[in-house]
Write a structure and sequence with these properties.
mainly beta; 5 helices; 13-stranded parallel beta sheet; about 40% strand; about 450 residues
Amino acid sequence: MRKVFILLSLLVVGIFAAKADAPEWQTTYKHVESSMKSPVFNGWTYIITKFGASTKASAAQNQKAINKAIATCSRKGGGRVVVPAGTWNTGALTLKSGVNLVVEKDARLVFAFDTSLYPLVRTRWEGMDCYNYQPCIYGKNVSNVGITGEGTIDGGASNDAWWFMTGVERFGYKDGRENCKYTGARNKLLKMVADGVPLKERIFGKGCGLRPQLINIIDGQNIIIEGVTLLRSPFWVIHPVFCKNLTVRNVHVWNEGPNGDGCDPESCDGVLIEGCRFHTGDDCIAIKSGRNQDGRSDGRPSQNIIVRNCDMEDGHGGVVVGSEIAAGVRNVFVENCRMDSKNLERVIRIKSNPCRGGTTENIFVRNVKVGRCKEAVLKINLDYDPKEQCCRDFPPAVHNVWVENSTCEESENGVFIVGLADNDNIYDIHVRNCKFDGIKNQTIKVTGKAHGLYFE
């Protein structure tokens, strides 16, 4: 430990004048921004009441009516499927190509807690492929789709609905209720991944306690989620997987439930998240690319991602990479965001372990204003979840990380790096022109192996 800090102090003294701004802001960032494609929709409008939906109808009746409106709209070339003002109870909905689901102002789409309304579909759960409850809004192999409007999409989760499936008493668990903790469903899925069990045999759903996401789109292109308020998700809120050209704009996420991540792009290429507000029970934004063997076998990294002008009101992490990043992450740009919460643990966090493998590279952060955070403004941890049962032959790597022109008023540490004892895989870390006040422990804390650490 002592040698690490001596080396670090020598680096800090010697390199200030040699380092210039990260050039990628002028090259890669502009290329990513200009390459984004927005969805294109036809001008036809389909109002759900024309297909039998009613504010007085049951969730099952509205589910059938809304899905019929979506299917009809897509079959006829696409357009707008409109949810008008009022409260509409429903079950799981399936997006189709060419459809913009518009939840209008004063409309509230509420998903009922009735597991029979969520049939099995192929999805990813914590980075692992499986068949599970259909997410509340789900699409697969779709293009030119949207979820827009000024209304509210309410997942209906609470300690009496979905959240108790954690098996944790403070989230409503009582003996005899469906859960994943005591049925061992999560551990069973982890073992299936490790053993290479075919996807068709990874069947979960009713009785297993693996909660569904609020929005899950798989293999999608040209997607927009804009303007809506997203509440009370059973699990992760926005979870796109294998998607290209995704825009999440001016969305308000409020979800204090367990594993309540706000937006988790997984193995996606071309993502813009801007102007959003996050109040979450877990990470606000968490970028992923598959867990362990599933991620390595698929091999699709998350890349070319821009996060800007967002407010992180509450949550464990502001912008997080990991931990399910076995296929790697690259070219992530974060700028002009504001974060302040007594529950915010880390502002920028990269987390992985030797179960995963993969390389995280080219992470650029600038102009982030932080009020309070608990542990660190920047944390890189390659020993996350050290008790995970897995093959640990895949050491991850992190390099070319820049944090510039950012401030923090109060934190335990400024920068906290946890490297591995036997792999020197963290390098080229730059913290430049930053002002970290109210540091209670250490401005720079390093354990394990790391090199090429530049602080000026």
